[in-house]
Amino acid sequence: EVQLVESGGGLVQPGRSLRLSCAASGFTFDDYAMHWVRQAPGKGLEWVSGIIWNSGRIGYADSVKGRFTISRDNAKNSLYLQMNSLRAEDTALYYCAKGGGYSIRENFDYWGQGTLVSVSS
Amino acid sequence: QSVLTQPPSVSGAPGQRVTISCTGSSSNIGAGYDVHWYQQLPGTAPKLLIYGNSSRPSGVPDRFSGSKSGTSASLAITGLQAEDEADYYCQSYDSSLSGPVFGGGTKLTVL
What we know:
Helices cover 0% and strands 50% of the residues of chain A. Chain A is mainly β. Chain B is mainly β. Chain B is built from no helices and 9 strands. Chain B has strands spanning 9-12, 18-23, 36-40, 47-50, 64-69, 72-77, 86-94, 99-102, 106-110. In chain B, the strands form 2 sheets. In chain B, strands 1, 3, 4, 7, 8 and 9 form a 6-stranded mixed β-sheet that branches. Chain B has a 3-stranded antiparallel β-sheet with strand order 2-6-5, with no helix packed on it. In chain B, a hairpin with a 2-residue loop joins strand 5 (64-69) and strand 6. Chain B is globular. The A-B interface holds A 35, 37, 44-47, 50, 59-62, 95, 100, 104-114 and B 2, 33-34, 36, 38, 40, 45-48, 51-52, 57, 87, 89, 91, 93, 97-105.
């Protein structure tokens, strides 16, 4: 059974940093692209960042480019999101999602339950 | 403003058929990238409903079907049930943005 468990969310002041983690199990982690997708309160889904199996290709939404860094550790079956210079508009539930294949162009076939990030002074 | 356009809401009575449209452009759906659909029940994480325009993952009832034509795609739900009440999102890939994109979501109400 595929499981994705996010952690690291919390309340943080504007301009500060936070690091999210996603622990994956139930599949061969290094065969698939992985993603972060967020959902602001009462709003729709927004893709944040994706990384292919060997970290050779990485993509970011324009809204987070230059502030967020995605990474993965295949030995630990883990995905990370380093979030710097946080803004109020980054407040959202952050989902870890498994890609449907090796490319970041594919679907998201499994999702975690999300970790909440609140940016406020 | 989402890259893919969906109606904010649709509704139907139990047993009826509803469709949800998803309109894109020449840099996403029209460029040949697949469309995928997700169902998000209240208070839960999204779940993949349709992938590759019209394929259903194991366990998804055949009441759900997807299609794609030109720069648009559609999700059809037949034999509407109360448990289908949820938010539905379409998703594709955009070559101009170099990343996946979502529609704004459609809230389905079962009357």
